[in-house]
Specification:
The complex is a heterodimer. By secondary structure, chain A is mainly α. Chain A is built from eleven helices and no strands. Chain B folds into two domains: about 20-60; about 65-320, MetI-like fold. The chains are: A mainly alpha, B mainly alpha.
Chain lengths: ~300, ~325
């Protein structure tokens, strides 16, 4: 009784477990099937991107990389059955409005981020602002257009300013949240050292925090610019569209062309030439967005 | 020999000194500006709400709650109702969420659960991020000239063989719900994938080790341990992806067909609140603008609720894993 044979139970009652992996055991089959399924899904998910890039290069690239690329990049859009033409005004318009949006949203955004990250991170205002900034990132972009329409267009008419301000409403939360994160990552020791030699908070922020956090802030700004350049819904009824170059930056009734609205307008036209230009404009737009995305990545890389 | 560090530090040439009066003044001014800028975000949201409500007020007074369940949008008779648009918005977003959600979560698992070498995973992540970088109008253009021609024969076949099934009860005559929902799914996939990847990354490594240690297969560990642990983060990803889908405008305006009708069929043209705004606003008269402002307010309310819900779930997840802050 006292000396129990420990191996006996295994021999009598249970089959010794086989710890070897079984290829055709139910759970192994299930495992492999799911793995295959995941691979299929991952490959399927890459197809749209490849297809979009292929179409952009094939249909948009013929014009852009062909002999007439100067015409495409500078000429006015064609009318009706006209051949040739280009997207010059739209490129200038998009760049102008994105520049306006950047000039508005970056200073305000970085100042707000300074408050959120350093001056009062736990204050009531900061909590509310941070939350609302997050809510605004998921805000439908067309509502920014509706808002600016109600505030500006009704009073002053369509203008690059209205378009730029609508874009800045969308850029602001992105800039604020990215800059806050970048600023919050500046080590406390550096700030303490600066305070220790008698710096005011302003001096600490200007001379220590902002230079140190700059790469992260720039990454956020570049991503916000990339997003704004591709936006179209907020421009639909703030900048409207125009076939001509911007002549002045006056804010009164001055409709402005943009790449995204050009694509939207031309996509539904029954003329082959216009559709071709829509693809070319898409390629240019994607390239602009891509440049800012790459810049964001370059700035984001830690130095050494 | 001659260096006397302590004496030097104690002398008047030290860099340590209290801030001067001018510096104090600059400081308080600068802080004031920063405070104002943080307040600006709050003011902006209030201004948006106030402005839209003000513009929509005549329409709210005129149509009241009937606006929400009215089914006609007739400018000439001045009858406005957005039920077909609300239906179209929710239906297209739900379809997109179903597809984009499955793909997004699968990709998050693919990227985080050691399916591929981590350098390859980085390449794949970049691909998914690029999907998010492509502008909405470009997807719209792609949808018109690539996606619709591809799915049209499939839709025709489904309609001919399974016409009794409500989802396939109409023919795809060009733009419609199916291409719109597909493009929408592609557009929300990066959002869902990115937030889900974060959710999986938050799980401590030892959780997976423990599961493997008990002899689970890779997928048993994923399905029974990793997914339930990451579930709240994935829920946040789905809700925020849904919020993205609700507000998406241009691709839908180009692909959904802008027809004010309520239909279960995947191939019928439909309309969404955002694309109604995009297509009607530029040419709208004064009365229609008021109705459109009301529609904008409806869209704002729906997306606001969904986004706040999503953020709340996300914050709950962060607290759960990082301890209460």
């Amino acid at each position: 009784m006292s000396d129990v044979d420990l191996t006996a139970t295994a021999d009598e009652g249970l089959v010794r477990p086989n710890l070897q992996r079984q290829m055709f055991e139910g759970r192994a089959i299930k495992n492999n099937l799911l793995t295959v399924l995941t691979w299929i899904i991952a490959i399927l998910a890459a197809i749209p991107l490849i297809s979009v890039i292929y179409m952009l290069l094939m249909r948009g690239g013929t014009r852009l990389f062909g002999a007439g690329f100067v015409e495409v990049l500078t000429a006015l859009p064609p009318a009706g059955f006209e051949m040739g033409g280009g997207i010059g005004p739209a490129i200038v318009g998009t760049l102008t409005m994105v520049a306006i949006a950047t000039l508005i949203s970056v200073p305000f955004g970085i100042m707000a981020a300074i408050y959120l990250a350093i001056l009062g991170p736990t204050s009531k205002l900061a909590t509310i602002s941070r939350f609302l900034a997050k809510v605004l990132t998921g805000f439908p972009s067309i509502l920014a257009g509706v808002f600016v329409y109600a505030v500006m267009v009704v009073n002053f008419g369509y203008s690059p300013w209205a378009g730029g301000i609508a874009l800045s409403v969308l850029m602001l939360p992105t800039v604020v949240l990215a800059a806050e994160e970048a600023i919050a990552q500046v080590p406390q020791r550096m700030k303490d050292a600066a305070f220790g030699i008698g710096c005011t908070r302003t001096q600490v922020i200007w001379k220590v925090v902002l230079p140190t956090g700059l790469p992260g802030i720039l990454t956020g700004v570049m991503l916000a610019i990339a997003g704004a350049a591709g936006e179209s819904a907020p421009l639909l009824f703030t900048a409207l569209f125009s076939n001509y170059y911007i002549e002045s930056l006056s804010a009164a009734n001055n409709p402005t062309a943009s790449l995204s609205i050009l694509i939207y307008n031309f996509s539904g036209m029954p003329f082959e030439n216009q559709i071709e230009l829509a693809w070319t404009a898409s390629l240019v737009l994607v390239l602009i967005v891509l440049v800012f995305n790459i810049l964001a990545r370059l700035f984001g890389q830690p130095k050494v | 020999m001659a260096t006397k560090p302590f004496q030097q530090a104690g002398s008047s040439s030290t860099i340590t000194r209290p801030p001067s009066g001018g510096e104090r003044a600059t400081d308080s001014m600068f802080r004031g500006i920063a405070y104002a800028c943080a307040g600006l975000i709050v003011l902006l949201v209030i201004a948006i709400l106030w402005q839209l409500s003000k513009e929509a007020l005549p329409a709210i007074a005129e149509y009241g709650l009937g606006f929400w369940y009215g089914t006609t949008w007739d400018v000439n008779k001045e009858i406005f109702g957005v039920l077909p648009e609300i239906w179209g918005t929710l239906y297209s977003s739900l379809l997109a969420l179903l597809l984009g959600g499955i793909f997004g979560i699968a990709i998050a698992i693919f990227l985080t659960q050691d399916f591929i070498h981590h350098k390859l995973a980085l390449v794949f992540r970049t691909i998914v991020e690029l999907l998010a970088a492509i502008p909405s109008v470009v997807y719209g253009l792609w949808g018109i000239y690539v996606l619709i021609p591809i799915i049209r024969p499939i839709a025709e076949w489904l309609h001919e063989t399974l016409a009794w099934f409500p989802l396939f009860s109409t023919d795809l005559s060009g733009p419609g719900l199916a291409p719109a929902a597909l493009v929408l799914a592609i557009m929300i996939l990066p959002t869902v994938a990115a937030i889900s990847v974060d959710a999986f990354r938050r799980i401590p490594y030892k959780v997976k080790e423990a599961a493997y240690g008990m002899g689970t297969t890779k997928w048993e560990a994923i399905l029974k341990v990793m997914l339930p642990t990451a579930s709240s983060g994935i829920l946040a990803a789905l809700v925020l992806g849904f919020g993205r889908a609700l507000g998406e405008t241009m691709a839908l305006a180009m692909l959904i067909g802008n027809a004010n009708q309520i239909s279960l069929s995947l191939f019928a043209p439909a309309n969404t609140l955002a694309s109604l705004l995009a297509s009607s606003f530029p040419e709208a008269g004064a009365v229609e603008v008021q109705a459109l402002m009301y529609a904008a307010l409806v869209l704002l309310l729906i997306t606001f609720i969904v986004n706040v819900l999503g953020l709340a779930v996300q914050q709950y997840t962060v607290r759960k894993f990082e301890g209460k802050k």
